[in-house]
């Protein structure tokens, strides 16, 4: 993210239209774009058995993660609205890599997110199965 914010853009718009009526996007499309970024907030729930006070830590951690994610995504949305014209958004899906100060940092961030999600899913599944069996959630 720092590499993107510090980078330069060849897509800088001449004017900024924050609330334009020229094209509208449905809520389904916005949801599809941002939902994958929000699924990691509950990752700590699967590790609740390791926490000293899970009743306090899980809500605090989840709400803190949502708050930090909200600030980052709103900041990125405003940054893109101010620094990338609409034609660049429509035609070039790799514009973040092109405008980043260090392209490899963007690629590393993407791979880091992919691998951490995959490994988190693998590690969480065994913990969830363990807690289900201890608490006898599924009974014969």
From TrEMBL:
* UniProt keyword list: Membrane, Transmembrane, Transmembrane helix
For this protein, the parts annotated as crossing the membrane are: 29-48, 60-82, 102-123
Give the bilayer topology. Answer: Multi-pass membrane protein
What InterPro entries does the entry give?
A: AA-permease/SLC12A_dom (IPR004841), SLC12A_fam (IPR004842)
Chief localisation class = membrane
Q: Where in the cell is it found?
A: Membrane
Per the database record, which ranges form the Amino acid permease/ SLC12A domain? Answer: 29-133
Which superkingdom heads the taxonomic lineage of this protein's source?
A: Bacteria
Q: State the protein's name.
A: Amino acid permease/ SLC12A domain-containing protein
Q: Which organism is it from?
A: Algibacter agarivorans
């Amino acid at each position: 993210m720092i590499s993107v914010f510090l980078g330069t853009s060849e897509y800088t718009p001449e004017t900024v239209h924050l609330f334009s009526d020229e094209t509208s996007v449905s809520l389904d499309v916005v949801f599809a774009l941002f939902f994958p970024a929000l699924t990691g907030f509950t990752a700590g729930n699967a590790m609740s058995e390791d926490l000293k006070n899970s009743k306090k830590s899980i809500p605090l951690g989840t709400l803190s993660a949502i708050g930090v994610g909200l600030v980052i995504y709103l900041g990125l949305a405003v940054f893109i609205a101010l620094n990338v014209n609409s034609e660049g958004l429509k035609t070039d899906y790799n514009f973040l890599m092109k405008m980043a100060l260090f392209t490899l940092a963007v690629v590393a961030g993407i791979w880091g997110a992919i691998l951490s999600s995959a490994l988190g899913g693998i590690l969480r599944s065994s913990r969830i199965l363990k807690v289900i069996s201890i608490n006898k959630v599924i009974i014969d």
